[in-house]
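Margin note: ligand = WT7.
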Amino acid sequence: MQIKNLEEYNIAYEESVKDPERFWASVAEHFEWQKKWDKVLEWNFTSPDIKWFINGKLNITENCIDRHLATKARDVAFYFEENEIGKPVREITYQKLHDEVCRLANVLKSFGVKKGDRVCIYLPMIPEAVYALLACARIGAVHSVVFGGFSAQSIKDRINDSSCKVVLTSDGAYRGNKQIPMKATVDEALVDCPSVTNVLVYKRINGKVNMLNGRDHDWETEVKKQETVCTAEIMDSEDPLFILYTSGSTGKPKGVVHTCGGYMVYTCYSFLNVFQYEPGQIYWCTADVGWITGHSYITYGPLLAGATSVIFEGVPNYPDAGRFWNVVDKIKVNVFYTAPTAIRALEAAGLDFVKPHSLSSLKVLGSVGEPINEEAWQWYHKNIGKEKCPIVDTWWQTETGGILISPLANITKTKPGFATLPLPGVQPVLVDDKGKIIEGNGVEGNLCIKFPWPSIIRTTYGDHERCRQTYFATYSNLYFTGDGCKRDEDGYYRITGRVDDVINVSGHRIGTAEVESAINECEEVVESAVVGYPHDIKGQGIYAYCIVPKSSRSHDEIRKEILNTVNKIIGPIAKPDKIQIVNGLPKTRSGKIMRRILRKVAEGDVSNLGDTSTLLDPAVVEEIVKGKI
Ligand code: WT7
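Resulting structure:
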């Protein structure tokens, strides 16, 4: 399954395009199937209808855990580094992982959870979060993880969208020097979630929580009652494995659905090849399980490969900006995978936080979530990788399930800012705005993929039409990523960023429409428009233009209220960085907001605002330029 050099990559790539079914069948052979598939692939991008490993039967947790027990029962699956510095690292062996997952799976069963039922997970970055995902998968329940930075309202919307039966949560989370309540937030959400019958609460911070009799249960007490054996549910390749909500350019977040067989094959294959993980190495991905990276490259991919990984509860700047490097030395991490925003923040903190650490165990560095600017790339390469570790700049999305475009460590020649080349099985194309495929090198366009790979999105939960509209209707017969992209003279891909109304803030995807509708909930705000602008640390910041009629309150008070409202409706991650109070927004005669102009102003590029002749009232623009923050 693991490519070893450039020649092998070229051969694998060619084979994967010439005969995709044969290629993926040979990869899928490496897994344990309860029953092999009858046919590798059936697909069309019009419905869309995509099926991989048809009629194959499996359970992903048998491949993540049981399969390794014969040889690896006492090997470490996870090292757990707590938020607090100076604590000994906890070791979770494959055997322990097996036992904990089975116990928790049995608890879910005792709550009446059955194959196909949905379970919401709202937990901090602790081993129990990983157990939770796997316990669901063990019994065929569909997990829906909600990131800890989302508000009660967001949890509620997600629970109701997929009618979750059970919620797995904790009293709270340690985050740097803060303690964040979680159960209280869940309680607030559950006031309006009729489908939820049981809540399991892990005690992490020993916080005071309200426990509702009959509904809420203590995690440890329940788990202790259960056996460490739980027969894995037999799943069809195309049974859903999980739902993960993600923002788009319109409406509420959609539940991206991934299925068991293809996701298993692709996350393992991409993990082994991109990071060139070798048995015995220690791998650390700093993401949170609340995002797809935490699903594919903390939980499933590494476990499928039998790897040893790190789970880190804390944050990069606590107790100081040397924490990552402290942990790298402490656990002797070989492969380190993080986001550009973290790199930029640590770069800004200065080299004094890097110098005391040797970092000599590092062999491979990774980047994910947003374009990595050349300066951050060079800093990472020089100061963290000591110019001897390749950087794999991995491009992918929640919808793609796994990494699609990336160097293979020590195999693909890297180039700062470039995700370089597609993995075998991935067929990217660039198209112009009319959908015409742009051939050749040294070109730029909208990034699409023209052939399915095993972990492609199957549907958006409860609304297949939305999946079709969003990803498969813009250009016929192509999966549209929403990203702009360049292909240089070497055929290398460079992702330039979103071409739709999605902002990438610190690697988190935020839909402008969602933020606008939250802001509009403020009584004082008549209308708003939200755009992204370049931000030194976050990559992009959120800039909100808000129409507020003359009122008795000061702009500062109104701004505070806007921030509170967004915090309450979406969560702290969507709070605007800048709020400009305006009297009007630039609109065309047909009433459409001209975001292009608002983006330019937010970027500070007002010298050439382009054609404003179609504007209803050009004076609005002058006022906005004058009032820029
Ligand atoms: C969007 C997907 C993939 C897991 C984390 C984010 C941007 C992601 C890169 C990269 C440039 C990147 C894209 C993409 N993105 N990785 N290496 N270089 N841009 O997942 O929340 O689904 O966001 O993140 O714009 O479309 P996500």
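The first helix runs from residue 6 to 18.
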